[in-house]
Specification:
Blueprint: E1 5-10, H1 12-29, E2 35-41, H2 45-52, E3 60-66, E4 81-83, E5 93-101, H3 105-115, E6 121-129, E7 142-146, E8 152-153, E9 169-172
Helix pairs in contact: 1-2
The protein binds inosinic acid (IMP) and magnesium ion.
């Protein structure tokens, strides 16, 4: 697996330190609110599990599954909810935690969908932000790292469903897909 990684962009230590920092910030911002933490599976599960622990508030968690990308990593523009939340979001302060904000199409779709259920607020936290690729009019309220327009793997991010469990974020060696 390691031989498929061209370069390590963010080490496990850098990511952990950033999760602690973001967790502190979110704890401050949501004091006294009814926070619902939402994870988008599968990619978002790694950052979700690391980020919810440093959030020192009573909170609810919920998961949803959306249609995944193909091998090429390009969005189809057609986002499908495969498994919906099992919690009523009305009057809750929702924080969606995701691995990466790329074209933004997935998160824009989710925001529209959840907004229709009358939550008190919706914000987005993404470990990574790739602004160069943005197509939808959406931003992340809490960003860990701004990254260049390269195909990344690890820490939840996959290529053809592989590499999600790498503890760091790296670039994929082109020999894997050439
Ligand atoms: P988008 O913002 O709608 O384009 O989709 C974001 C989703 O695309 C993320 O949750 C990832 O699952 C996937 N994605 C975006 N960029 C990458 C990448 O560099 N490597 C792997 N998956 C990616
Ligand atoms: Mg994803």
């Amino acid at each position: 697996m390691k031989e498929d990684v061209k370069e390590i962009l963010l080490t496990a230590e850098e990511i952990q330190a950033k999760c602690a920092e973001l967790g502190k910030q979110i704890t401050q911002d949501y004091k006294g609110k009814e926070l619902l933490l939402v994870s988008v599976l599968k990619g978002g599960v790694v950052v979700f599990s690391d980020l919810i622990r440093p959030i020192a508030l009573a909170r609810l968690i919920a998961f949803l599954v959306v249609g995944s990308y193909g091998k090429g990593g390009k969005t189809s523009g057609n986002v499908k909810v495969i498994k919906d939340l099992d919690i009523n979001v009305a009057d809750k302060d929702i924080l969606i935690i995701e691995d990466i904000l790329d074209s933004g199409i997935t998160l824009q779709h989710l925001t529209v969908l959840l907004n229709a259920r009358n939550p008190k607020s919706i914000r987005i936290c993404t470990l990574l932000d790739k602004p160069e690729r943005r197509m939808a009019d959406i931003h992340s309220d809490y960003v860990g790292f701004v990254v260049p327009d390269e195909f990344l793997i690890g820490y939840g991010l996959d290529y053809a469903e592989k590499y999600r469990n790498l503890p760091y974020v790296g670039t994929l060696d082109p020999k894997v897909y050439e």
